[in-house]
Amino acid sequence: MNEIRLPSIALLGAGSMGRAILSGLLAPNVQVDGPIRVTNRAAASAELLPRSEKVTSLVTSEDPEANRTAVAGAAIVLVAVKPHMVAELLDEISPVLEPGTIVVSVAAGVTTATAESHTPEGVAIIRSMPNTPAMVGRAVTGISAGSRSTPEQLEIVRGLFSTVGEVVEVPESQLDALSTISGSGPAYVFLLIEKLTAAAVEKGFSAEQAAQLVNGTFIGAAELLRQSDKTPEQLRIQVTSPKGTTERAIGVLQDARLDEIFIEATDAALARARELAGG
Asked: Pathway it belongs to (predicted)?
């Protein structure tokens, strides 16, 4: 496993995604310059953080200066609060952001232009869109450069998110579309698992048996795809014997215009992302 070296980091907001990113930063092969300063609004949330000498936890309800203390001198500031809180938080910390600081937004719908308007000229803004498999080190994270960031700064952020999975760099104009695929994608997979499990129960299997059958099948199929040099289409054809049972089932799904449904679903998600971006 390659060693990853990162400059000093502040993490503002350690909800489920923030904690997932933090777990990647605490991996044995990751070296961060100095302690990772993490802020939360409540002490109860701070209690959920990993116990590590590499983490300094600050609570804003107990210390009004916590966010500014966390970011002072940090080379990377990860903003992982809810989207509606981002502008106010950036206004709060802007006076102590040093030139050359990289502010990385994990908030959906907040454009780099918006973030840049709330930070000093010398501060770089980079948007990111990780997904929930970051919790197990299997994220796919999209990153997009702002107008003030350099290729070197983008590479640093790529290294940061590589601690929790794969990283895809796209123009910001594509980041909302990316969010409809990889960002929302785990929910689509879980929905398919949920419905196939219900079908198994309807066929007479117990809930436990159905979960074992379906969960194991999805995990096994994903691992087969990961290890194979074949495309998903080729693997599907490999399972689908001519005139067999699988072919009949696939025909039902195709007759239900599954391909069009996924396009409609992701279009709906993209429309909502644009609504959020527009305020």
From this structure: Amino-acid biosynthesis; L-proline biosynthesis; L-proline from L-glutamate 5-semialdehyde: step 1/1
